Amino acid sequence: MNIHEYQAKGLLRDYGVPVSAGRVVLRAEDAKTAAGEMDGPLWVVKAQIHAGGRGKGHFKEPEAGEKGGVRLARSVEEAAEFARQMLGRTLVTIQTGEQGKQVNRIYIEDGSDIDREFYLALLIDRVTSRISIVSSTEGGMSIEDVAHDTPEKILTFSIDPATGFQDFHGRRVAFGLGLQGNQIKQCVGIVRNLYKLFVEKDMDMLEINPFCVLKDGSLKLLDAKMGFDSNALYRHADILALKDETEEDPKELAAQKFDLNYVALDGEIGCMVNGAGLAMATMDIIKLYGAEPANFLDVGGGATKEKVTEAFKIITSDPNVKGILVNIFGGIMRCDIIAEGVLAAVKEVGLKVPLVVRLEGTNVELGKDIIRNSGLNVIAADNLSDAAQKIVKAVKG
């Protein structure tokens, strides 16, 4: 689960990490008052969406102006005007794709007199199963570009969970960034608190870009992105309360309510499968035969008729879906239950696109009989390869 920048900075303040003072704005008429509560003379007006690259992004609507989603204002009036231009508009960045995301919140914060910019992140290293710290002197840039062009400017190391964070970890970051004097002590304290926040809140990503040295020599975090392990949210009600459902795909939200593993994709063939591995194989074979999957959807091993029905509804609600492939291997799950769920969904929402069903495993013959005798226009398949070829052929015409 991701949260907005202003929410992330609230957490950073709670853990004693230096960030700028700011105000969140939901209505354009409140922007002038919010900006007036800060001293200036410089204000930073930031669009709040769950995507990076806001500063270099552009708005679809000409009313939003030519500047990106992060703007510098030199008066309260200008800050309010920037907020008015951005609220309700669609911001397109390198991470949103051309569809962009609607800006429903603006964050106005005090400007900072920056001397140098760095990059700092804490991430889960899947190879070592440890928390890794990544830092670079090239702040304010995409870390992917730095990794490609100047990888020697990135410092990465992991922390042994048996010892946890130690001050020498913070000093290693400070020395790598070229900090001196009291800045080293500040850096150690900041990295220590970031590590504590990361662990206590079950994060999987914490990115600070830029992490700055100001002209007065102090350190400050000017931007923050945070991601949390969704499987651990049950023990963090405070984090779950920060969720902004307007940033989520409605189909993915519906799937969560029925404990379905669903991810929307850009293709034309909807998939309903049980088991993550089988789902990946199904997506791969669809691509092999010349089409693209519209989603990843794992109904799990213990799906009920009701859950299968809801899964089918979610797939058919996607206007990009031109055909559906149901691929079930019934081990724990019974094929007759899947068949009943598919037929119930078809009768409830209708079937306007080709549907191929491949069943194998427990009660497979009973499941096939249910589909065969349903009177519905469902294409049966004998194996996965056969199923993929049939649905691709049906979609491609």
From TrEMBL:
Substrate binds at residues 274, 331-333. GO terms for cellular component: cytosol; succinate-CoA ligase complex. The keyword NAD does not apply. It catalyses: (S)-malate + ATP + CoA = (S)-malyl-CoA + ADP + phosphate; GTP + succinate + CoA = succinyl-CoA + GDP + phosphate; succinate + ATP + CoA = succinyl-CoA + ADP + phosphate. SUPFAM superfamilies: Glutathione synthetase ATP-binding domain-like, Succinyl-CoA synthetase domains. GO terms for molecular function: ATP binding; magnesium ion binding; malate-CoA ligase activity; succinate-CoA ligase (ADP-forming) activity. Its EC number is 6.2.1.5. ATP binds at residues 46, 53-55, 109, 112, 117. The keyword Transmembrane helix does not apply. It comes from the Bacteria. One of its GO terms (biological process) is succinyl-CoA metabolic process. Residues 9-55 form the ATP-grasp domain. Mg(2+) binds at residues 209, 223. Pathway: Carbohydrate metabolism; tricarboxylic acid cycle; succinate from succinyl-CoA (ligase route): step 1/1; One-carbon metabolism; formaldehyde assimilation via serine pathway. Pfam families: ATP-grasp_2 (PF08442), Ligase_CoA (PF00549). Its cofactor is Mg(2+). Keywords: ATP-binding, Ligase, Magnesium, Metal-binding, Nucleotide-binding, Tricarboxylic acid cycle. InterPro entries: ATP-grasp, ATP-grasp_succ-CoA_synth-type, ATP_grasp_subdomain_1, Succ-CoA_synthase_bsu_CS, SUCC_ACL_C, Succ_CoA_ligase-like_bsu, Succinyl-CoA_synth-like. Binds 1 Mg(2+) ion per subunit. PANTHER family: SUCCINATE--COA LIGASE [GDP-FORMING] SUBUNIT BETA, MITOCHONDRIAL, SUCCINYL-COA SYNTHETASE BETA CHAIN. NCBIfam families: PRK00696.1, sucCoAbeta. Succinyl-CoA synthetase functions in the citric acid cycle (TCA), coupling the hydrolysis of succinyl-CoA to the synthesis of either ATP or GTP and thus represents the only step of substrate-level phosphorylation in the TCA. The beta subunit provides nucleotide specificity of the enzyme and binds the substrate succinate, while the binding sites for coenzyme A and phosphate are found in the alpha subunit. Heterotetramer of two alpha and two beta subunits. Belongs to the succinate/malate CoA ligase beta subunit family. This is Succinate--CoA ligase [ADP-forming] subunit beta. It comes from Fuscibacter oryzae. The lineage of its organism: Bacteria, Pseudomonadati, Pseudomonadota, Alphaproteobacteria, Rhodobacterales.
